[in-house]
Each structure stands twice: as structure tokens, then as C-alpha cells.
Amino acid sequence: MSEQETDTQPQDIQESLEILNRVPRLGGPIGRLANGLDRLLLWLAVIALVGLSLTVLLQVASRLFLPITLSWTEELTRYLFIYMVALGAGVVQHRNRHVNVELFHGWLGFRGRAAYLTLISAITLVFTVMVLPNAWQFAQIGAFQTSPTLRIPMLYIFLSSVVLFGALLLYSLIGLAEGIIAIARGERIDTARQEAL
């Protein structure tokens, strides 16, 4: 096998896994706003991940080296994990990185991929519109409770469900717009994008 063939194999595999990402993103001010929101949510999710890791390390260190264990570390770890998932879910949806079974994506043409993403975004939109009011009611229950060890009002913890479904709602609207625009404009964008690469 030549060196050129081995260099192209990982690229071919990556392109085959990113078939759904070939539908172009929104441009203009809305596209820049979506990209800025992506970066903000990812930074917040990374901060939650780093905080989670440091809290777990502190918990392990306290069990090994201190005569007492810090009981609040387990609770904080749980809350940071919840927020990490809530903050990252919308970005993962926007970048088409959710776990899925790609049985037929490679067979779809450009408009087929755009229609598929439009359908997924529409289903997600309907689901989040149905769930979001209940998530808000659930969060309001936490206004009368505090966490056992940290004494944080549970409203802030339960708001993670509102953040999760709010982000999914916003990104499903963006995905719906991207899919509809791609269907309307057709293969010309896909060809121009491939020539630019």
C-alpha cells in the first residue's frame, strides 16, 4: 500500500462519517450568532467538565490522605455532570454528532440529506415544544428545596432541564432553517462547497 493511499484512508473514513455535515450552515448574522452560541456553550461545558474532574480528584485525595471524607464533592460532581450534558446537547445536535445508525445516509443525494436533517430537526422541535413547559414547571419545584450538603437552591439544578430543552429548541429551529434552505437551493451549494475545499 502506498503512502498516498494510507494518507487518504483516514480522510475518506472521516468524510463518510460526516455525510450529514455536508448540508451547509446558515451564513450571515444568524450564522455568526449560532457559531458564537456554539463556542459559548462549549466553553461552559468544558468548564463544567474541568470542574467535575477536579472535584473527583479532590474526593479521591480526601479519601486517601485526609481523616475525613468531603461529602459535598459527590453532590457537586453530579450537578456539574448534569450541566455539562445540558450545555453540550444543543451543540452536539447542531454539529450532527449524536450517536446514530448510518445505514442509508451514504445513499442519499444532497437534497435527501437536507430533507433527512430537516425531518430530524422538525421532530426535535415538536418534542422540545411539548417538553419545555413541563421542564419549566419541574424547575419551579426546586424553588422550595435546597441541596442536602451544598445548600444550593434546587431551582438552579432543576433549571438544567430548561437549559437543555431550550438549547435543543433553538438548534432545531436553526437546523430546520438550514435544511429548508439547502433543499430550496439544491446541489449548487454542495458543488461550490466541494470546489472550495
Automatic annotation (TrEMBL):
<protein>
    <recommendedName>
        <fullName>TRAP transporter small permease protein</fullName>
    </recommendedName>
</protein>
<feature type="transmembrane region" description="Helical">
    <location>
        <begin position="156"/>
        <end position="184"/>
    </location>
</feature>
<feature type="domain" description="Tripartite ATP-independent periplasmic transporters DctQ component">
    <location>
        <begin position="53"/>
        <end position="178"/>
    </location>
</feature>
<dbReference type="GO" id="GO:0015740">
    <property type="term" value="P:C4-dicarboxylate transport"/>
</dbReference>
<dbReference type="Pfam" id="PF04290">
    <property type="entry name" value="DctQ"/>
</dbReference>
<feature type="transmembrane region" description="Helical">
    <location>
        <begin position="40"/>
        <end position="61"/>
    </location>
</feature>
<dbReference type="GO" id="GO:0005886">
    <property type="term" value="C:plasma membrane"/>
</dbReference>
<feature type="transmembrane region" description="Helical">
    <location>
        <begin position="76"/>
        <end position="93"/>
    </location>
</feature>
<keyword id="KW-0997">Cell inner membrane</keyword>
<keyword id="KW-1003">Cell membrane</keyword>
<comment type="similarity">
    <text>Belongs to the TRAP transporter small permease family.</text>
</comment>
<keyword id="KW-0472">Membrane</keyword>
<dbReference type="InterPro" id="IPR055348">
    <property type="entry name" value="DctQ"/>
</dbReference>
<dbReference type="InterPro" id="IPR007387">
    <property type="entry name" value="TRAP_DctQ"/>
</dbReference>
<comment type="subunit">
    <text>The complex comprises the extracytoplasmic solute receptor protein and the two transmembrane proteins.</text>
</comment>
<keyword id="KW-1133">Transmembrane helix</keyword>
<comment type="function">
    <text>Part of the tripartite ATP-independent periplasmic (TRAP) transport system.</text>
</comment>
<keyword id="KW-0812">Transmembrane</keyword>
<feature type="transmembrane region" description="Helical">
    <location>
        <begin position="114"/>
        <end position="136"/>
    </location>
</feature>
<keyword id="KW-0813">Transport</keyword>
<dbReference type="GO" id="GO:0022857">
    <property type="term" value="F:transmembrane transporter activity"/>
</dbReference>
